[in-house]
Amino acid sequence: MKKKLLLLLVVASLGFISCDDNEDDGRYADYLVARPLKITKTEFKNGVDVIAPLPIEESGKIYAYQDYIFVNDKYRGVHVIDNSNPNAPKKISFIKIAGNVDISVKDDYLYADSLMDLIVLDISDITNITIVNRLENVLRDNVIWPLGVDFFEQTNFDYENEIIVGWEVVTERRLISEYEERFLNRGDALFAEAANDAGTGQGGSLARFKIVGDFLYAVDSHNINIFNIEDLENPQDLEDVYAGFDIETIFNRGEHLFLGSMRGMYIYDISSPATPTFVSEFQHGTACDPVVVDGDYAYVTLRGGNGCGATESGLFIVDISNISSPELKISYPMDGPYGLGIKDEKLFVCDGESGLKVYDKTNVEDLVSLNHFKDIFTFDVIPLDNSLLMVGDEVLYQYEYLQDDIKLMSTLQLD
Length: 415
Prior knowledge:
Elements: H1 2-25, E1 28-40, H2 41-45, E2 48-51, E3 59-65, E4 68-73, E5 77-82, E6 90-97, E7 103-106, E8 109-114, E9 117-122, E10 130-135, E11 151-152, E12 162-175, H3 176-180, H4 186-195, E13 202-203, E14 209-212, E15 215-219, E16 223-228, E17 236-237, E18 241-242, E19 247-253, E20 256-261, E21 264-269, E22 277-283, E23 291-294, E24 297-302, E25 314-319, E26 327-333, E27 340-343, E28 346-350, E29 356-360, E30 368-373, E31 378-383, E32 387-392, E33 395-401, E34 406-413
Parallel strand pairs: 1-11
Antiparallel strand pairs: 1-12, 2-6, 3-4, 3-13, 4-5, 5-6, 7-8, 8-9, 9-10, 14-15, 15-16, 16-17, 16-18, 19-20, 20-21, 21-22, 23-24, 24-25, 25-26, 27-28, 28-29, 29-30, 31-32, 32-33, 33-34
Pfam family, one: LVIVD
InterPro entries: LVIVD
Protein name: LVIVD repeat-containing protein
């Protein structure tokens, strides 16, 4: 009898919960909420250090240099991985850099952003990395605002003594009426207005830093920030070049830079490297947009939705044989792509939750699927001479090239 009574009570309680949920369904919805990650200005200025390996919190971009792989941990710094044995890579240290999202390396000097500052580190002795320079306020529009956020969470913020180094984005269930009235909220309105070669390593397609010869190009939301790094320890900050809106990525081929933005692909001539000049653009609907180039074609992945815009996700192949007049050759549907890469006739596409897709691009108008690695989240790839690096959700993958395929060699859990 007691068991029956208990069962009735449980059923009744579930009924009440169900009723409450049904009532909430009309008034509540799930929204993306950005919470600022704050530190004091003193901590920021002293926020560069080299420490023992740490678990990763949020996988960012990857960079390969000699026998080492550097994996960004968004807004926190860079994980250093010894890859001298690709079958058994191992983490060896963590470079703390407050607000960091990008790096680039030339001749044992690592350049990293720390919000608006450019940090220079000597990595010639990987077991004794040293900080050699800090250029302050040279990356003038480098604060990365999260895309597609519905709310910027209000918080007590001390403008005199604190600084925002990044954001934590979470899903929360909130009143629809609160969402509709959010710009009447002073805190949200404030944040919304603000939102408005040899010797070098290799970054992925999502990179915002690119070294070409004696110059470092670093794109922010609107500009190409240019540094002469002939004196590796003492970069010279040159005049920025305004490049448009919502610049996200940079890629180099020969004497041209290819900038991926939410609005299109912009091409700049760097035959005079200190003064890039606009050549042409390929426009598309609003979408998150990295780009890589091979031969007469630029390969662009567009990720629609989730704050990236209304454009459907896809792979766009653009004919750039006439660099002054790029034209769309063909497009292929994708689910939610991020980075991509090319090795000879193989094309690798990180299609987010849909995994890694491998194609033969011999005929760009008829891509041939070679493989599809499912059940993994993929973010960006770097095709090296002898292996393919890919970073996913807190995991580093390495693949061996086969004649018509690739084969997994190793994984490294970063968490």
